[in-house]
């Protein structure tokens, strides 16, 4: 078997998997910018919104940072994978970018 992966035939956001007589390109974990294999522990660099923790790229919970990210009145922070979103608190709705009572 020839190791086709030795020539790095895959794209930057993929890793190479050598198979018998061939190879396949697999997508890196969403937390990675470039990788050497499957999973968040094989990242070359962590993607934006992720930090290296215990040799893995883990999501940063922007909602628990000391500096508030959702600063408008009656607004709550919701952590998402690699990011966050600001939503109006319960009993309020978004009217032209302002949270007003419903």
From TrEMBL:
Keywords: Calcium, Disulfide bond, EGF-like domain, Glycoprotein, Repeat, Signal. It comes from the Eukaryota. SMART domains: EGF (SM00181), EGF_CA (SM00179), FU (SM00261). Signal peptide: none annotated. Transmembrane segments: none annotated. GO terms for molecular function: calcium ion binding. InterPro entries: EGF (IPR000742), EGF-like_Ca-bd_dom (IPR001881), EGF-type_Asp/Asn_hydroxyl_site (IPR000152), EGF_Ca-bd_CS (IPR018097), Furin_repeat (IPR006212), NOTCH1_EGF-like (IPR049883). Residues 59-98 form the EGF-like domain. The keyword Nuclease does not apply. Belongs to the CRELD family. PANTHER family: EGF-LIKE DOMAIN-CONTAINING PROTEIN (PTHR24039:SF28), FIBRILLIN-RELATED (PTHR24039). This is CRE2A protein. It comes from Pachyramphus minor. The lineage of its organism: Eukaryota, Metazoa, Chordata, Craniata, Vertebrata. The gene is Creld2a.
């Amino acid at each position: 078997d020839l190791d086709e992966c030795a020539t790095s035939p895959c794209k930057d956001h993929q890793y190479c998997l050598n198979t018998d007589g061939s190879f396949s390109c697999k997508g890196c974990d969403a937390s990675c910018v470039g990788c050497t294999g499957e999973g968040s522990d094989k990242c070359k660099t962590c993607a934006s919104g992720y930090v290296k923790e215990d040799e893995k790229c883990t999501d940063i919970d922007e909602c628990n940072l000391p500096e508030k990210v959702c600063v408008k009145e009656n607004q709550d922070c919701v952590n998402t994978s690699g990011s966050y979103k600001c939503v109006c608190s319960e009993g309020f709705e978004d009217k032209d970018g302002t949270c007003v009572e419903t």
